[in-house]
Amino acid sequence: MSPSINLPVCLEDARIKVLPTAAFYISDFISKEEEEVLLSKINRTNALKIQTAPKPKWKVLSHRRLQTWPSDLTKNNSLLDSPLPGWLRDPVASRLLECPMNMSNMKQHIFSDSPHGGPNHVLINEYQPGEGIMPHKDGAAYHPVVCTVSLGSSLTLEIYETKDDGTRETTPKFRILQEPRSLLITTGELYTDYLHGIAEVHEDVDLDHITIANWDLLRSPEIYKQGNFQRSTRTSLTYRDVIKVSKLGAKFSMFKAR
C-alpha cells in the first residue's frame, strides 16, 4: 500500500462525531498517483501514458459538467445492468469493500446491506471556482449510502435541515470540508432527511474547528488556519448502489459486442 494512503482500521475510527447520524471521513483514501490516474481517465488525456477511458460522456449543465457511469438512470429510476469500468472499480470501489465497519465484525463493509453488495453507479461532477449545486436530496433510487471521493481541490459541502412546512432552512446546519484524495461517506438520516449542496463561490470562508464538522479528521487543517480557501477545479466521484437494475442492459451489451 502506498505510504500516502492512510486508511483507518475500521470506519468507526473515521466517524464524524458531531453529525447526528453516521458519516465518515478519510482524508487520505487514495494516493496522489491514483488521483492523477483518475483525473487522466476522466479527462481522457495520455499524459501518464496509460490506457485511456472510453470517450468521456460529459453533460454540460449551467453550473457544472458531469459524467454518469455506466449509464444514466431510466425514467423509472432503474439502471441498465452493466459493470463499471475497471478504472472506477480499482482502487476506489474495491477499497470501499475492504474497509470494515467496526472491529466486532471485520467482514461487514459500508455496502454489506445494500441490494447488490457494492456500488453499481458512479456520478462524476466537475466544479470550477464559482460553480456549485443547489441544496437537494438524492432521492429513493439509491440505497441510502453515498461515498464521494474528491480530486483536485478542496471545497465545503453544506448540510441543511428542513422546516416543518417542508422548506429548507436558509443557513446550513453543518459544513464538511472535503480535501483532495479524501473520502466522505454519508448514510441513514443524513441521506434521507437532510439536504446537501455546494455554494457557488470562488472562496470558502469561515473555516475553523467550530464551523467545520470534520475538522479533527482533516489531513492538513493548517492550510485553512486563516479561515478561508481559494477554490480551484474540483472533481468528485460519487459511488452509490442503484436499487432497481434492469437485465436488459446485459442484452444490449451483448449486441454491441457483436
From TrEMBL:
Name used for this protein in its record: Fe2OG dioxygenase domain-containing protein
GO MF terms held by the record: dioxygenase activity; metal ion binding
Lineage: Eukaryota, Fungi, Dikarya, Ascomycota, Pezizomycotina
InterPro entries (UniProt xref): AlkB-like (IPR027450), AlkB-like_sf (IPR037151), ALKBH6 (IPR032862), Oxoglu/Fe-dep_dioxygenase_dom (IPR005123)
Gene3D superfamilies in the cross-refs: Alpha-ketoglutarate-dependent dioxygenase AlkB-like
Xref: SUPFAM superfamilies: Clavaminate synthase-like
UniProtKB keywords: Dioxygenase, Iron, Metal-binding, Nucleus, Oxidoreductase
Boundaries of every Fe2OG dioxygenase domain copy: 118-243
Subcellular location: Nucleus
Primary location recorded for the protein, binned into one broad class: nucleus
Species this protein is from: Hymenoscyphus albidus
Signal peptide: none
Family: Belongs to the alkB family.
Domain of life of the organism encoding this protein: Eukaryota
Gene Ontology CC annotations of this record: nucleus
